Amino acid sequence: xxxxxxxxxxxxSQDKRExxxxxxxxxxxxxxxxxxxxxxxxxxxxxxxxxxxxxxxxGVEGLKLAHQGSVGLLSSExxxxxxxxxxxxxxxxxxxxxxxxxxxxxxxxxxxQSYYDLxxxxxxxxxxxxxxNPKYDEELVAxxxxxxxHCWQGDVRK
Length: 158
Hints:
Helix content is 61%, strand content 0%. With 158 residues, it is mainly alpha-helical. Helix 1 runs antiparallel to helix 2 and helix 2 packs across helix 4 (45-58).
């Protein structure tokens, strides 16, 4: 019974961490020593003991990942609505996006990355722009233009 449930779990699990846990337990049940499992799977003795205990307490459910992720602040419908809104606009600003989401849904993200992710999902390349090039040097540009004109006219020495 134990082995069958482990075999099914190993066969059907989509996460390699869960599979590794199950294989470690299965090897232990098959008579492998901790040191052999450590060498073969590259895990620690504590890893083997932890997942053996979890398996005997909860079965294969104890081997599953516990973290399910967090719930997003925007529902999928709200997120789609924001994407559609972005797609119909000609210009975008981060402040405008923040304001729109706050006004319409009462949501303010704690990280700017959430807003960038929305731009990315709408396939909008968003970079903060500068009013002028900070490396611009008028004298250097003028000298390069002068050299180019002389080169174009055939006089490279000037």
